[in-house]
Predict the structure.
Amino acid sequence: MQLLLPDLDAPATLIFDPEDRLSDDDYFDFCASNPDVWLERTARGEIVIVPPVGGESAYRNTVVTCQLGNWSEQTGHGKGFGPTFQVMLPDGSSLCPDAAWVSNQRLSGLTREQLRRFPPLVPEFIVEVMSPSDRLHAAQRMMQDWIDNGVELGWLIDGDNRCVYVYRQGHEMRQVLNESQIEGEGPMESFVLDLTDIWAGL
Amino acid sequence: MQLALPDLDAPVTLTLDSENRLSDDDYFAFCMANPDLHIERTAQGEIVIVPPAGYESDYDNVDCVSQLKVWSKRDGRGRVSGCSVQFFLPDGSAMSPNVAWLSNERFAGLTKQQRRQFPRVVPEFIVEVMSPSDRLRAAQRKMQKWIDNGVQLGWLIDGDNRCVYVYRQGREMRQVRNVSQIEGEGPIEGFVLDLTDIWAGT
């Protein structure tokens, strides 16, 4: 059954039978049958249809993933991922961070089969880049969900306001404003993200 | 954006941006863009996609519509519609009962355009026929919403259990079980629905 959605400028939520959540396999199949739609799932099993991001958000994302990929390759302890990477988290949600780094150690704990679907794993590090349709309080709630699920370090990047919200496991959230770069900590120590092109945008 | 839905055996709820409900016109356009789906809207603006009812439910529907139509033509005080007509109700919801009877008086109050789209009017009498995917308490809640919105008489027909739940404005809900017919009251006094074929099923 095909559903033609109205134009979305903010995420829409689809709830299937609330008393009978889609299994992980059925959820994956549902995503696979909708390759052009960005889908995620909340802890309550609600499916979120995320509107497409515009060019500038996509560019800002790429600035992050390229630098993360390079650092990841140089250091060799893990793998960098971009925004198509969806992971299944302990609280039952299934989310795609805009960028993520996962240690080889964590990856080695999964089978090939798991890695070829939505792996049940918590990245050590994630980045979310705000797009024009994102609301700050919702984005911040999402960052806290990442931390509650076990992410050790998360950056929420607000390109328009030249601000990075830093979420670190066991620490208060802090803001980094108007800096030209930001340094990693914990699992990302030695990673330095140059923010110049993100602030410049398109 | 098109979304391929999995086979549904229960209603699916789609919530668009809660701060930005679809206008009535956009909601109508959305329903028209999805003519094969049975869609309704809750008072909170959530869109509910109801799975197809299946042969037996439709058979029961047609039975009700045709009996009511025959009586209504003789009676002359109102008109009958089936499940493709959706009503915009005072609480903000948009629902289509399986059968509705609307007095000529209320019909006359509609503009030509409203008659061609989803009219903002409350039918005096509605019938809901339970389909296999319906859950009783959800169906009963829906009947109460009809009454809360101003419907004077509503029948919820449970063909499998040979039961009609009667909702009458200002009265307690009552059940009528295992009878071969049910008599109308209030706005449709004089109408008698023969339940024999509905109980027999297909």
User: Anything to note?
Assistant: Chain B touches chain A through 28 residues (CB under 8 Å).
